[in-house]
Fold this protein.
Amino acid sequence: MNVNRFTSLCFAAFTVRWIVSRTIENRPIWDRTMFKKLFGKKPEPQVELVPSGRKFAVARNKTVLEQALEIGLPYPHDCTVGTCGSCRSRLLSGRVDAITPFGYTLSREELQAGYILACQAIPESDLRIEVELPDAEDVPVSVGGRIVDIQDLTHDIRKVTWQLDAPLRFKAGQYMNVRWPAGPGHRSYSFCHAPSPEGSLRVSAFVRRVPGGAFTDSLFAGEFADTEFTVDGAHGGFWLRPGDGPILLVGGGSGLSPLMSLLEDAAARNVRRDVVLLFGGRGERDLYCLDEIAGIAARWDARFQFRPVLSEEQVEGVRHGLVTQEIADAIAELGGAPGLQAYMCGPPPMIDAAVASLTAQGVALDAIHYDKFTDASTRVAQ
Ligand SMILES: Cc1cc2nc3c(=O)[nH]c(=O)nc-3n(C[C@H](O)[C@H](O)[C@H](O)COP(=O)(O)OP(=O)(O)OC[C@H]3O[C@@H](n4cnc5c(N)ncnc54)[C@H](O)[C@@H]3O)c2cc1C
Ligand code: FES
């Protein structure tokens, strides 16, 4: 029997069976519902956000983030192209298609735990997504500003201060986006100081020079004296969560910026939780803010341990190796993983290694908070 004849016989058998079964069930052989099921538009997938309980339908080929922003929800986000991780959310049920693989930005551990990037996720079914929505007063705003102070901290890190036209509110640990007229796009910098409740008119960040970088090359060449910036913020989910367990902080390079903000703020609020601060550099010349850290340690109401770790230079009394290799010891010193929260900022490879080390020691992913300091080269590498 040839293929055409076989197909025709199958179709005929199916049709006869269909007619017989519809007749036995006393139903019409063809109705509008069946037509709709076969050829009608599929219903738009429904998304429910937890714990806010917000629900919305996502139009075909739109991402979860696009749709949420379109209906005015303050869904956390920044880059919208899958690099910054700000829209990281946990998929509790349902299926999504990723425009760019989440694995470029999320760690293996996060993928295994069901995390997705809302800006890259197109729903393939109804979804339940766990994500913290900011309060209305925390939604980012845009203000004008000028650089009014620059201080050298190390051979390649400077503390940069902007004077703003209107106060900016932020939570300790968050970051701002700065734009300037000739710039290729925004650059993100984490506040390095405690916020004030009524908002800050002067905001500062530690900025590390990236050779060939659009913003940092001009900054280190002193080209921003009269430049009018647009500063918007605050962004990011990097702030100290409530709790009474110990805190592990891990930073590298200018990644100390938000950690100082978080520590200054917590010290001012008399937070009484044990802390270990691990800071990674190559050599002694990469260490900075030592007096400020000693000042916080002196005011801290519980145990406070600062441990610099140098990867290249051997210095007496200072640990040698990668900062992430110190994580297991630090967790043990803090009494183990249960109840511990980890906060980390710095280059993406450091964060990925730290997440792997923390989860291997039993720290839950929802107790790990970080900002990866990605730049234009990270985005191109994807
Ligand atoms: C959430 C967040 C918070 C941050 N906080 C801080 C902070 O507090 N302090 C801090 O110092 N940094 C921080 N960063 C990093 C910061 O935003 C900038 O990315 C960084 O300062 C570099 O900016 P740039 O304009 O100087 O360099 P970029 O212009 O971004 O260039 C970076 C590198 O990429 C190369 N490059 C540029 N374009 C291309 C291309 N097309 N192909 C290949 N390579 C290319 C450049 O030559 C350069 O070497 C943060 C980043 C994020 C995402
Ligand atoms: S907004 Fe989704 S990764 Fe940046």
Notes: Residues 84, 175, 187-190, 205-208, 210-216, 236, 254, 257, 371, 373-377, 380 surround flavin-adenine dinucleotide (ligand 1) (CB under 6 Å). The CA atoms of residues 192 and 257 lie 4 Å apart. The mean pLDDT is 90. The chain has four domains: 8-39, 46-130, 139-235, 247-376.
